[in-house]
């Protein structure tokens, strides 16, 4: 089903980028440099000199150094080498020294097989800690190598080689994340550039083929576990752009064009992006790739401009609200976006929500989109009918409905917001139906003292057997994130656009034999465990779900059936 028109009164005139916004990238990033430096052990006599993991070296609340925190070396190298608005760190020798110390510490904590740890000791993570930190360390090394001692250059180049060879061996921990495969390509390509080893180039080509197996060329998106996730799709665009800058291959451009087009549907009239529409619920937007490709792909310029404006209004996920672990990712992304900002755009094409007439259904991702002069609506049927609707005149979010979530009397949490291949779908130009079974939410699990002792003891054992580390990582992913746990509670959700309103109908039939203690319909909620998610956004202040009161719960448990119809006037 597809019906699309490019007519749009707002976008008939040629638009150019607002160069005054460019400084927002630098301001958001540089404001966090003192935070990054404060997280680093800056004492030259300390055995952990250079570590950015403050929980480890100072607070003593972690029993191992998280390699991902060494991402900070790239930010320090970038502010040391580049003049930018408000950059008091430019050309300061001490910043260079701290960056090099961070690089040395990164090499120091590498395992013999080339891998690194992120979440727990002896993790030996494939991309999460190893490829990501290899890439950023290489980027910092390229900036600083002429000012390094020979022994430091040798130390780092050996570490790059070991890490690249580990990455080239491929996925072995139930990863199933396209952005990780893109990062594996990026880290290996950068290793090849620095070391000039033809084996690394062959390894890159092998990894590229692996990445393509996760890219859906029919609809232009890449798989994150079991569906499309726009937040991480923007990350994939960013990672591929960094390869493209020195390797402008047509196959990269083809993938990126499709990916940018897919991302455009998740740029919303109120300035926010992605969120609960995605398979991983991520809200973040990686901007650098869109700046890099704005010259060749005008739509990238449109998205970059809209998202930069949103960033200036403290939307998206600004670095200042990100946890210490992940702020390291965002800062260099914005620094590079400032450096590679592209303003020579003669025309910014309209986004999907800016079109007067658009009706589209992506059969494979189950994304349903509608735009008319008054409203923009997007739904993910694969997640049980998660839907957002916007008033285009005011830009207001009118409907934010993540489906149904409930608590059973046995304390299990169940929801319709779960990707399940057994769901059944029907779509038209003006609506859709989805039906299936509730799934049990697996993420409400916590460590106890006993569980932690058992887990740490296991980690000591698998330290002797590296292959077991990958099996453990895959097992953890299955417990917290993957798979279906259906329960015999059926639901049906229908959505219909009428002449003057929108109607949502929900019905539930509980045949499980377990009664509900609570149930909430609509609103914003997340059920899949994803570390880079669940950040606060100001739009949440106006989002409310509906919770059944005790009398309604009693009636539902008595009859085993429940129905509700909601009408939203436009």
Question: How are the SSEs ordered, and which strands pair?
Answer:
Blueprint: E1 2-5, H1 22-30, H2 33-38, H3 54-57, H4 72-81, H5 93-108, H6 127-144, H7 150-168, H8 178-195, H9 198-212, E2 215-216, E3 221-224, E4 227-228, H10 230-244, H11 250-264, H12 288-293, H13 298-312, H14 324-339, E5 357-362, E6 367-371, E7 375-380, E8 386-391, E9 397-401, E10 404-408, E11 413-415, E12 424-428, E13 431-440, H15 449-462, H16 466-480, E14 486-497, E15 501-510, E16 516-521, E17 546-547, H17 550-559, E18 561-569
Antiparallel strand pairs: 1-5, 2-3, 3-4, 5-6, 6-7, 7-8, 8-9, 10-11, 10-16, 11-13, 12-13, 13-14, 14-15, 15-18, 16-17
Describe this structure in words.
- Strands 10, 11, 12, 13, 14, 15, 16, 17 and 18 form a nine-stranded antiparallel beta sheet that branches. Strands 1-5-6-7-8-9 form a six-stranded antiparallel beta sheet, with no helix packed on it. Strands 2-3-4 form a three-stranded antiparallel beta sheet.
- 48% of the residues are buried.
- The chain is built from 17 helices and 18 strands.
- It has helices spanning 22-30, 33-38, 54-57, 72-81, 93-108, 127-144, 150-168, 178-195, 198-212, 230-244, 250-264, 288-293, 298-312, 324-339, 449-462, 466-480, 550-559; strands at 2-5, 215-216, 221-224, 227-228, 357-362, 367-371, 375-380, 386-391, 397-401, 404-408, 413-415, 424-428, 431-440, 486-497, 501-510, 516-521, 546-547, 561-569.
- The chain starts with a strand and ends with a strand.
- The model is unreliable at 5-14 (pLDDT under 50).
- By secondary structure, it is α+β, with helices and mostly antiparallel strands.
- Helix 4 (72-81) packs parallel to helix 6 (127-144).
């Amino acid at each position: 089903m597809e019906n699309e028109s490019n007519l749009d009164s707002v976008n008939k005139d040629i638009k150019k980028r607002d160069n005054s916004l460019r400084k927002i990238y630098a301001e958001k990033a540089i404001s966090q440099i003192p935070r990054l430096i404060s997280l680093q052990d800056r004492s030259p006599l300390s055995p952990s000199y250079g570590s950015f993991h403050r929980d480890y070296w100072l607070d003593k609340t972690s029993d191992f150094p998280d390699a991902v925190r060494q991402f900070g070396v790239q930010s320090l190298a970038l502010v040391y080498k580049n003049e930018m608005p408000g950059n008091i760190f430019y050309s300061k020798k001490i910043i260079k020294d701290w960056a090099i110390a961070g690089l040395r510490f990164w090499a120091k904590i590498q395992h013999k097989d080339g891998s690194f740890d992120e979440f727990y000791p002896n993790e030996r993570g494939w991309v999460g800690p190893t490829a990501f930190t290899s890439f950023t360390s290489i980027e910092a090394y390229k900036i600083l190598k002429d000012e390094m001692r020979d022994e430091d250059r040798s130390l780092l180049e050996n570490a790059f080689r070991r890490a690249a060879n580990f990455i080239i061996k491929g996925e072995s921990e139930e990863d199933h994340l396209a952005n990780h495969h893109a990062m594996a390509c990026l880290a290996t390509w950068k290793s090849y550039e620095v070391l000039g080893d033809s084996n690394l180039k062959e390894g890159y080509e092998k990894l590229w083929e692996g990445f393509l197996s996760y890219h859906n060329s029919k609809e232009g998106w890449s798989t994150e576990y079991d569906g499309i996730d726009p937040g991480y799709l923007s990350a994939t665009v960013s990672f591929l752009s960094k390869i493209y800058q020195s390797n402008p291959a047509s196959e990269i451009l083809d993938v990126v064009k499709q990916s940018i087009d897919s991302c455009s549907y998740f740029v919303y009239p109120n300035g926010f992006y992605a969120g609960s529409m995605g398979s991983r619920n991520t809200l973040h937007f990686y901007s650098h790739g869109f700046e890099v490709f704005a010259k060749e792909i005008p739509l990238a310029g449109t998205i970059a401009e809209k998202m930069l404006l949103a960033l200036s209004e403290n939307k998206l996920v600004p670095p200042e609200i990100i946890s210490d672990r992940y702020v390291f990712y965002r800062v260099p992304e914005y620094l590079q976006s400032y450096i590679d900002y592209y303003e020579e755009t003669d025309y910014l094409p309209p986004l999907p929500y800016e079109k007067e007439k658009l009706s589209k259904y992506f059969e494979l991702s189950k994304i349903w989109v509608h735009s008319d002069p008054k409203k923009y609506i997007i739904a993910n049927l694969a997640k049980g009918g998660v839907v957002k609707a916007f008033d285009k005149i005011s830009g207001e979010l009118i409907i934010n409905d993540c489906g149904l979530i409930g608590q059973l009397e046995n304390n299990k949490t169940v929801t319709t917001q779960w990707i399940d291949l057994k769901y059944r779908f029907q779509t038209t130009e003006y609506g859709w139906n989805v039906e299936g079974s509730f799934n049990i939410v697996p993420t409400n699990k916590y460590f106890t003292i006993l569980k932690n002792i058992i887990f740490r003891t296991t980690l000591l054992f698998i330290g002797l057997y590296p292959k077991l580390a990958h099996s453990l990582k895959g097992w953890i992913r299955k417990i917290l994130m993957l798979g279906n746990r259906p329960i015999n509670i059926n639901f049906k959700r229908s959505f219909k656009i009428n002449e003057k309103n929108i109607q949502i109908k929900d019905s539930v039939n509980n045949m499980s034999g377990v009664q509900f203690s609570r149930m909430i319909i609509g609103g914003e909620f997340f059920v899949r465990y994803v570390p880079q998610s669940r950040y606060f956004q100001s739009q949440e202040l106006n989002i409310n779900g509906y919770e059944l009161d005790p009398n309604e719960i009693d009636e539902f448990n008595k009859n085993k059936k429940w129905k509700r119809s909601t009408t939203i006037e436009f």
